[in-house]
Specification:
Helix content is 41%, strand content 17%. By secondary structure, it is of the alpha/beta class. The chain starts with a strand and ends in a 9-residue tail after the last helix. The chain has one domain: NAD(P)-binding Rossmann-like Domain (Rossmann fold, 3-Layer(aba) Sandwich). Helix 5 packs parallel to helix 6. The strands form 4 sheets. A 7-stranded parallel β-sheet has the order 3-2-1-4-5-6-11, sandwiched between helices. A 3-stranded mixed β-sheet has the order 12-9-14. Strands 7-10 form a two-stranded parallel sheet. It contains 11 helices and 14 strands.
């Protein structure tokens, strides 16, 4: 298949491009490089021997996006391009809606014009908010607690409505929780160009010496050790889930949780990083972050049944692969910090 990947130079996107190429697909990437690096695709080319076309395009720019789709002639689209930081969304809500909702609508309009009706949508487990039942099943009513999560829930509503009104569409939304780790080669990994808000990259920065310590935001949650609990899933498993969604997608809308289905606290993740790196992680207690919830991990049985996602890489593997990436690339894709 010919696949257009929006946001394909980013953390998840670059791993997705690699997985698609290894599975024999033709790939074309659209990315504005606002929170990513074209060097990730150069690393993918080094691993596969295949150079992937990259169009530097704002997902909200209809004419440029249309030109990319015309060049790519895709059979399907995997849509990652979006703003994604919870804390940032609290201060830039309008920008998050402009990109995440406006960009999605623009993409759908362009796809419809081009006659492309298959989409795999990057959703988020954060749409559940402060859910009462854990692990959280897909039947749980979304209750997002911040603008970022609301844009993902709204995106799913748009996609459902589209499928209800045009039965030719085939759309899969993957609600994954906390993608982490890196490719086992250490060639590609997580390297946000702006503020680092995901926990594992912060821990790796401390381990590699880029910062002296890190803050644990909240030690008063109603969890076993007081720190927030999340479901960490290996980025390669996330990429595999998208591959399977492409291969098995029927007409209509469907959604799946993607994760290990196991909650891991901040303090437990710190211990896992210390074991993987052999280094002590200095941390200090801080206040809760606005928009955060105490725990968030999903029931993944539906993905096992519908996508065959029955096994996932372990937390030890996540930490080991993240350290392999960070220790080889202490400043990410840059040569210096």
């Amino acid at each position: 298949m010919k696949i257009l990947v929006t946001g394909g130079a980013g953390f998840i996107g670059s791993h997705q491009v690699l997985a698609l190429l290894q599975a024999g697909h033709d790939v074309h990437v659209v990315d504005d490089l606002s929170n990513s690096s074209s060097l990730s695709l150069e690393r993918v080319a080094a691993l596969t021997g295949i150079e992937v076309p990259l169009d530097v395009v704002d997902i909200t720019d209809r004419s440029e996006l249309m030109a990319s789709v015309v060049r790519a002639t895709p059979d399907a689209v995997i849509h990652f391009a979006a703003r994604k930081h919870v804390n940032e969304s609290l201060h830039r809500a309008l920008d998050y809606h402009r990109v995440n909702i406006g960009g999605l609508i623009t993409l759908l309009e362009v796809m419809a014009t081009a006659g492309v009706k298959q989409l795999v949508y990057s959703s988020s487990g954060s749409i559940y908010g402060d859910a009462e039942i854990h692990p959280i099943p897909e039947s749980t009513m979304p209750n997002p607690s911040n603008p970022y999560s609301r844009t993902k829930a709204m995106g799913e509503s748009i996609l459902r409505d589209l499928c209800r009104t045009d039965e030719r569409w085939s759309i899969t939304a993957l609600r994954y929780f906390n993608p982490a780790g890196a490719h086992e080669s250490g060639m590609i990994g997580e390297d946000p160009t702006g503020l680092r808000t995901n926990l594992l990259p912060v821990l790796m920065d401390v381990a590699v010496g880029n910062q002296t310590d890190m803050m644990v935001n909240g030690l008063d949650y109603p969890t076993p050790d007081g720190s927030a609990v999340r479901d960490y899933v290996h980025v390669v498993d996330v990429a595999e889930a998208h591959l399977r969604a492409l291969d098995s997608g029927p007409e209509g809308f469907r959604c799946f949780n993607i994760g290990r289905g196991v909650g891991v606290s901040v303090l437990e993740l710190i211990a896992g990083v210390e074991q993987a790196t052999g280094r002590s992680i200095a941390w200090r207690a801080g206040p809760r972050r606005a928009g955060d919830v105490a725990q968030l991990f999903g029931d993944t049985r539906l993905a096992a049944e519908g996508l065959g996602m029955e096994t996932y890489r372990s937390l030890d593997t996540i930490c080991r692969d993240a350290w392999h990436w960070q220790s080889r690339n202490p400043h990410g894709y840059r040569t210096t910090g």
